[in-house]
Write a structure and sequence with these properties.
CATH architecture: 3-Layer(aba) Sandwich
Distance between the termini: 20 Å
Strand content: 15-25%
Shape: globular
CATH class: Alpha Beta
Largest sheet: 6 strands, parallel
Pathway: Cofactor biosynthesis; nicotinate biosynthesis; nicotinate from nicotinamide: step 1/1
Radius of gyration: 15 Å
Protein name: nicotinamidase
Number of domains: 1
Number of helices: 4
Order of helices and strands: EHEEHEHEHE
Structural class: alpha/beta
Family: Belongs to the isochorismatase family.
EC number: 3.5.1.19
Mean pLDDT: 93
InterPro entries: Isochorismatase-like_dom (IPR000868), Isochorismatase-like_sf (IPR036380), Isochorismatase_Nicotinamidase (IPR052347)
Oligomer: single chain
Low-confidence stretches: none
Length: about 190
């Protein structure tokens, strides 16, 4: 049985100073970066992951997902535009240990990492199953949006799923609490 860590959308635009910043994003990036460093260096206290992957918002022209007058529910300011600094991983996060990166939302809204594909076109579910992954931990940004969607899709695909809440940043207290409830009711462990 293999376990995977999915690091969701820890990108510059979702951290302080970005176009769609989430409070605490830079701290989460640093904390995940420290965990990845321990894992990559095989430290004594390293988490037991067989593979570690990341997802990235990767927008070219996502249509109504971007808006000059966003409602912050279905439409958002321009963010994670391909080729911009905002689309890059936050500098507090060391991308070196990732076994693969899954890009989502080129021409549409995409919240779940399970909508993402590798640069060669492989879907996240297929990639994980090819490596006999049965258990998945999820962390990243934002708890109430892309982390939520990724965790729900993970559980829906049959993976034993856990969200590492201290390694997540949420947009708002109420929507984060609602997301935690929804994930728990779907069988996702909240750790």
């Amino acid at each position: 049985m293999s376990r995977a860590l999915i690091v969701v959308d820890v990108q510059n635009d979702f951290c302080e100073g970005g176009s769609l910043a989430v409070a605490g994003g830079a701290r989460v990036a640093a904390d995940i970066g420290a965990l990845l460093h321990r894992w990559h260096s095989k430290a004594v206290d390293a988490p037991a992951y067989d593979v570690v992957v990341a997802t990235k918002d990767h927008h070219v022209d996502p249509g109504a997902h971007w808006s000059l007058k966003p409602d912050f529910a279905e439409s958002w300011p321009v963010h994670c535009k391909v080729g911009t600094e905002g689309a890059g991983f936050h500098p507090n996060l060391d991308p070196q240990p990732f076994d693969e990166v899954f890009y989502k939302g080129e021409h549409e809204a995409a919240y779940s990492g399970f909508e993402g594909r590798t640069s060669s076109g492989q879907a996240l579910t297929d990639w994980l199953r090819a490596r006999q992954v049965e258990e998945v931990d999820v962390c990243g940004i934002a708890t109430d949006h892309c982390v939520r969607a990724t965790a729900l899709d993970s559980a829906g695909a049959g993976f034993a799923t856990r969200v590492l809440l201290p390694l997540c940043a949420g947009v708002a207290e109420d929507s984060t609490a609602a997301a935690i409830t929804e994930m728990s009711e779907a069988g996702v462990e909240i750790a």
